[in-house]
Amino acid sequence: MRIDVLTLFPAMFQGPMTESMLWKARDRGLLDLRLHDIRDFTTDKHNTADDIPYGGGGGMIMKAEPVVSAVEHVLQDAPPDTSVILLTPQGRVFNHQIAKELANHERLVFVCGRYEGIDDRVRQLVITDELSIGDYVLTGGELPTMVIIDAVIRHIPGVLGAEGAADSDSHADGILEGPHYTRPPVFRGLSVPAVLQEGNHAKLTTWRREQGLRRTWQQRPDLLLKADLTEAERYLLATFADEDAQSNRNES
Ligand code: ADE
User: Fold this and answer.
1) CA 186 to CA 204: how far, in whole Å?
2) pLDDT tens digits, 188-209
């Protein structure tokens, strides 16, 4: 997959993009990541990438010309279905499903907004998708771009060690993963559950699913409204509810 990132701060990407999984993906030839400095597409002698807003108000607005030129430059040899994604708190909120969908693209372009915003004609002319990483405002689209690239490349076959590992992640099927343990078997009096040490695969699969459901019930019950659950799993949830009711009664 080739990803082009258009930013005023390419140096921000140095650390995350040269470490860990992202580096492995690049090293294995699975990710061709290209950073472009929007300032290189300015035409005036001061390399002006921002200007004051029409109508007044505080802050500076990213100018349309350099951003549109940069997008057109990277799209020259791109397939027509290439997504050009603007990072903005006004976009649809990024999630696991969107990460999976983006991983199917041969090419992606990320446009990192900065300052108070970006001239709206950029949106009208070249943007095909707008993504937010949550309902809060950051100082720019660089960190959201890194977050999204990290989440997307995990779905490219060959990036993670065990093929398909991303399919067992939390959120992959709408519920969270259960707890994980490694050695030692007992730490500060807390033991690793016996089922993890017994080697009974069927029992382990059932246990993992139950633990995932329990964790989702405890930490993100909102996810259960949309999860695809069997009758037995719904029954299990009812037992969690009974347990909670029982412990509330014991406390009062
Ligand atoms: N730029 C500023 N805040 C953002 C957010 N929450 N998501 C994506 N891009 C942003």
Assistant:
1) 19
2) 999 999 999 999 999 999 999 9
b/e 228-240 (16+ beta carbons within 10 angstroms → b):
ebeeebeebbeeb
Fold annotation for 186-251: Trp Operon Repressor; Chain A (1.10.1270)
Q: What is the CATH number of domain 2-153?
A: 3.40.1280.10
End-to-end Cα, the chain, rounded Å: 57
Whole-number Å distance, alpha carbon 91 to ligand 1 midpoint, is 8
| Ligand 1 binding pocket, CB closer than 6 Å | 87-89, 113, 132-134, 136-138, 141, 144
Going from the C-alpha of 172 to that of each of 65, 73, 97, 223, the distances in angstroms are 40, 36, 8, 12
The tokens describing 104, both together, are: 């199917």
Query: Amino acid identity, residue 209?
Result: R
pLDDT tens across 58-74, in order? Answer: 899 999 999 999 999 99
**pTM to 2 decimals?**
0.93
